[in-house]
Specification:
The protein is an alpha+beta fold. The chain folds into two domains: 59 residues, Zinc finger, CHC2-typedomain (DNA Primase, Chain A); 156 residues, Dna Topoisomerase Vi A Subunit, Chain: A, domain 2 (3-Layer(aba) Sandwich), CATH 3.40.1360.10. Helix content is 31%, strand content 22%.
Length: 255
Amino acid sequence: MFRVNKVYQKRAMCFCPYHKSQKGSADLDVTIEGPYSGKWYCYSCQKSGTIPMHEVEKLRKMRGELKVKQSVTNWHSLNQSYIKKRFESGVFPPLKVSVPVLAQLEWGWDGTAHTFPERDAKDNITGILRRFPDRNKGVVSGSRRGLTIPRINFSQTEPLYITEGMSDLSVILECGMQGIARSNCNANVQDVYDWMESKEIEFAIVIPDNDEPGLKGMRELMNRRGWDAKIPTNKDLYKMYENLGKDKVKSWLKQ
């Protein structure tokens, strides 16, 4: 049985025994109701499995007994500590773009995974994305998914590219253009609108993943905005960049 932090109606949050938690927080999620009862998954290390039903019954009886301790994460300080640790560790870049571009994305290292902050429409860090060396992804426990907003000077006269994911955004920056990224194909719609309004940027070009969810998310984001879209010839812009190279992708973006 995992060490339990909080039991809700349909799930329990536990401390994962397979890794050291980032902040002593519960990262392991156990489903305790429905057809997937007993299935568990750790959001930090991505391990998963199943516990016996008699353990599920124990968790069901614990509903409401354990309380979550409210804590406030200083995301800015945590992000800066990861950036410092990346310098000290000398880890290799996680993407095939230049180090200055990764610096614009505030590339860090937490000892296990590469890190990149995500922000709300007011540019406050709300969480930190983790990208593992095997390309699996997660977030630091307690994160709220947001926008990836690079540390660049944005222009009101140049087009803004909105990508689906941080790696696609890295290609935009590598090509010398400006952009922001959503955390996934259907997230952060209002954050995008609010952030663009705060920067007085009116026009955007949406670059989705070339699959059904990506195209659906593109249409939702573009709803009545009069924006353009460019659909990659590969699954996503980063894969297109890997296959065709910077010059051809840059030319395609400018078409």
